[in-house]
Amino acid sequence: MIARNKASLDLNGAKIFKAMLDEDAQKSLVMTLRDVVAQAPFFHPVTRSGKQMSVQMTSAGRLGWVSDRRGYRYEARHPDGAPWPDIPKAVRDVWRSVSDVEREPDCCLINFYREGAKMGMHQDRDEGDYSYPVVSISLGDDALFRIGGPERRGRTQSTWLQSGDVLVMGGAARLAYHGVDRLRFGSSGLLKDHGRINLTLRVVDTS
Ligand code: SIN
Ligand code: MN
């Protein structure tokens, strides 16, 4: 079940819907994601400077996010050349209930955190129109999520995102710096070998 309650937490303007997906919804989403990942396998993006990210990624949707020596961008195809699979309906349902916009997302970025993986502070700013929010769904192990403001040096706040939580970065929080400091590896039994999956939904192409 996807609970359609009000946001239960506000973190520097980002809204958090705690436990929006119950255990059955989380399990069924993981099964669906297995099919997506079978079509579009996880890969380790590298930064422009050639540094490998600790998080593995893939995407679903019309466009997927990639990073390599040419930099960050959205592409219509997986690095292996195939188009990205469709965004699963259950994921689009979450978008529809929290985003407050009519438009469907173009991209569902799928991040996979194994033990020790983290994500440095960054803004999501490769999209065409920042009036659309970014919606994030957490599955698996707890993650210490940190969010600041639109300036890199701003004051930050942290919270543990848990499996089934949904976070919305919109309005003033759309360009907030954010990242994941660490996982509580093994804290959730949802994924067979533990770790964490994070889905982020984005409207990319508004041309
Ligand atoms: C991201 O910023 O792409 C991911 C955030 C998260 O894993 O919670
Ligand atoms: Mn991000």
Write a compact overview of the structure shown:
With 207 residues, this protein is mainly beta.
Q: Whole-number radius of gyration?
A: 16 Å
What proportion strand?
A: 25-35%
- What hetero molecules are bound to the protein chains? succinic acid, manganese (II) ion
DSSP E strands, number: 13
**Average pLDDT figure:** 95
Shape: globular
- The chain-level structural class is mainly beta
N-to-C terminal Cα separation, in Å?
35 Å
Order of helices and strands: EEHEEEHEEEEEEEE
Biggest sheet details:
7 strands, antiparallel
- Describe the strand arrangement of the main beta sheet, using strand numbers: 1-2-11-8-13-6-3
Record the SSE blueprint:
Blueprint: E1 9-11, E2 14-17, H1 23-39, E3 56-61, E4 64-68, E5 71-75, H2 89-98, E6 107-113, E7 119-122, E8 134-140, E9 142-147, E10 157-161, E11 166-169, E12 178-184, E13 196-202
Antiparallel strand pairs: 1-2, 2-11, 3-6, 4-5, 6-13, 7-12, 8-11, 8-13, 9-10, 9-12
The protein binds succinic acid and manganese (II) ion.
